[in-house]
Amino acid sequence: MLSRLVDALARASLRYVPDAWSIAALLTLVAFAAAFATGVSPGAALAAWGGGFWELLGFSMQMVVVIFAGHVLAVSPQVMRLLEALAGVPRSPRQAVAWTALLSMALCWLNWGLGLIAAAMLVRFVARRHPDADYRLLVAVAYVGMGTTWHAGPSGSVPLLMATPGNFMVKGGLLAAPVPLAETVFTAANLGLVALLVVVVAALSPLLHPPAAAVVRATPEALAGLGGFAPPPRPVVMTPAEQLLHGGILNRVVGGLGVAYVVQQAAGGTLALTLDTVNLLFLSLAVALHPSPASLMRAGEEAARSLHGVILQFPLYAGIYGLMKGTGLATLIAQGFLAVATPATFPLVVFVYSAVLNYFVPSGGGKWAIEAPYVLGAANTLGVTPAASAMAYAYGDMATNLIQPFWAIPLLAVAKLEFRDILAFELLIFGLYSLLVAGFLLLA
User: Which residues of 353-366 are buried (b: 16+ CB within 10 A; e: fewer)?
Assistant: First the structure.
């Protein structure tokens, strides 16, 4: 039954789902239409959209660095050897699917940039070792960490922002003090939910595998594109400049400086796990683990090729952000959801609200800047803790990643697939995830 359902959804996706940029453009038009429906004039809507076009530029650069650093680290020799060894664990196509899903969720929980790219690299090895595994499903489950675990982990944007000293919520009086990760990410409730999601999604994934007659195998072109990373060859006779380029001393020193800074901050009790700190650590590790500047630059060049979709589309989503913020549309949406909430149902309402808005503005938590005053203000009125509200928001923020193509762009660029190729699988996992989280939020 599941195979037939996936097949029907896959056919519909291939026929009706457009490319990722077109979805961003269509969502822009929907946001304009929604603004007009609330009485906003075309001129005011256009001014709000254009005014917001670059409003998320700093945050988008942080997101680019997360992906870039994750990619460069994922293709370092040590990590590649680890991924190759991990790809050898499963013994059948269905086991390969479950194992890829499990690793995607674990890696994305640790760091979503590393998890997103490392899972794509893992597909390289798994697809070669298990050519009879459905390639679409392998790529689909390599992406599930972005929709099930990342925002509940130590690289989650909203928990990190809540923990940052002097954040805008503290300055604006929404929080009395920063909320440490111990009260959000590292609570028993959150860790228990993550464990449940990992087990259930990993168990469901192989059940989605189509029968042998319907399996879509990786094409020769895709397998060629999945070739392993190789640094530039060392010249036989090297000049002093080439010795520096192909030697390891600079990478070790510069990467070591970044790691030493993080260790220094931790030892002094001043370490704050912010996006900038996480990016510094993973970028420093990436630099230190590459054997030479030549290898590092080649990895950086490869990583940059997967960023074009993010760079091209993020301004459109920032424009939607500006439109919703500047016209009061975000306030109306928030008030509509929060008007029906009670103390018991508030986390679930926030989850649904965040999931809906994330489909229009998949900012990785960046839209929290708009919504925090309304969400935290309502939470305070209803007696719900800021930590519980923020985590409900985080669960919703990642839920619709499964059915929204934006963050899948780097993975799909590596895999040589379109989002519509994997959407059927993601829809079913999205439904399961949503039911589990909704039940958790009502019972917690």
Answer: bbbebbebbbbbbb
Torsion of CA 351, 356, 361, 363, to 10 degrees: 20
The chain-wide mean pLDDT, for the chain, equals: 86
- The band of 358, judged by pLDDT with boundaries at 50, 70 and 90, is confident
Residues in the chain: 444
3-class SS string, 133-157 = CCHHHHHHHHCCHHHHCHHHCCCCH
- CB count within 10 Å of CB 164 equals 19
Round to whole Å and give the CA distance between 210 and 20.
25
- pLDDT per residue over 144-196, tens digit each? 999 999 999 988 889 988 887 877 788 778 788 889 999 999 999 999 999 99
Handedness of CA 288, 293, 297, 299 (dihedral sign): negative
Q: CB burial class (10 A; 0-12, 13-18, 19+) of residue 151?
A: buried
Give the list of residues 6+ apart from residue 353 with CB closer than 8 angstroms, or none: 333, 334, 337, 338, 371, 396
Q: Which residue has the higher pLDDT, 115 or 147?
A: 147
- Place 3 in a pLDDT band, splitting at 50, 70 and 90: low
- The residue with tokens 């990410």 is 185
* C-alpha dihedral sign at 338, 153, 398, 327: positive
CB 166 within 8 A of CB 370: no
Query: Which tokens go with 402?
Result: 């499964």
Highest average pLDDT, of 10-14, 44-48, 382-386, comes from: 44-48
Nearest of 93, 138, 147 to residue 119 by alpha carbon: 138
Closest by CA position to 279, among listed 57, 73, 54: 73
For residues 129-146, average pLDDT: 92
Query: What is d(CA 6, CA 392) in angstroms, rounded to the nearest whole number?
Result: 29
Positive or negative CA dihedral for 407, 408, 411, 417? negative
Rg value, the chain, Cα: 22
344: left (phi over 0), alpha (psi -120 to 50) or beta: alpha
* 69: nearest Cα among 328, 225, 283: 283
The DSSP code for 193 is H
pLDDT of residue 83: 84
Q: Are 133 and 127 in contact (CB under 8 A)?
A: yes
Residue 116 has pLDDT above 80, yes or no: no
- d(Cα 370, Cα 80) in Å, to the nearest integer? 39
